[in-house]
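Appendix B, Record 12. Input sequence as logged:
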Amino acid sequence: MECEQQKTDCASLCPCAASCPIGDALSQIGGKWKSRLICTLYVDGTQRFNDLLKKTRGITAAMLSSSLKDLETNGIVTRKQYSSIPPRVEYLLTEKGRALWPILHRLAHWENGEEYDGDGDPDLRLSPDKRKGSGNETAI
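Logged structural output:
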């Protein structure tokens, strides 16, 4: 009974109980590859398909194609096709896609145990020996 009451309380307090904008956003950029593609296109700029395939280690051509189509459908990536021989296609971020960079950058700081101050410099809250990748991580 207490558990049911907590669920009811949570549902009445949650601002996105009926339709969750966070869930909707994550469905557009979620998964293993989409955020990596967004970061690559932000950092390296306009890319051709094979360049993205080489830069995104582990992704298959089919998964890259599917991910790019999803990102294009959601208005995050633009596919630019040139009428040349051989055919040339390039991918670039839209303004909506570029707007994701600060969010993904901040998320990366969070994952690394850093508190992002918004100025590009993280306020580190974990000592260097406890940061991800140091080999001295402590399980909590």
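Residues 105 and 120 are 9 Å apart (CA to CA).
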